[in-house]
Design brief:
Helices cover about 15% and strands about 15% of the residues. It is of the alpha+beta class and about 100 residues long. A five-stranded antiparallel sheet has the order 2-1-3-4-5.
């Protein structure tokens, strides 16, 4: 495991794809918490959710390793590839679902 994320070059300015997990909304599923892909804006559900769509998004597209919490008041990021949680100093305020 690395101490810092080595994939920050994958981060883009993104617009959230949905107000909820777009995959759960499509199949009638439910989620626990939401995550935002920082490469494309895909909103997926967390690993504690039944379908783990955020992780599935990364597995389907390994070029999208970094997510950010999409929950109110949370400002942390996660890199699936490096398995590291971090905060980006100077990043814009954390986005969150309504």
């Amino acid at each position: 495991m690395t101490v810092t994320c080595t994939h920050l070059d994958a981060v883009r300015l993104v617009t959230p794809s949905s107000d909820g997990c777009e995959d759960c909304l499509r199949i009638g599923g439910h989620w626990v918490h939401l995550r935002l892909c920082m490469a494309c804006g895909h909103v997926g559900c967390c690993d504690n959710s039944p379908n783990r769509h955020a992780r599935g998004h990364w597995r389907a597209d390994p070029e999208h390793p970094i997510i950010r919490s999409y929950e109110p008041g949370e400002d942390w990021w996660w890199c699936y590839e490096d398995e590291v949680s971090f905060v980006v100093e100077g990043a814009s305020p954390a986005p969150s679902h309504p």
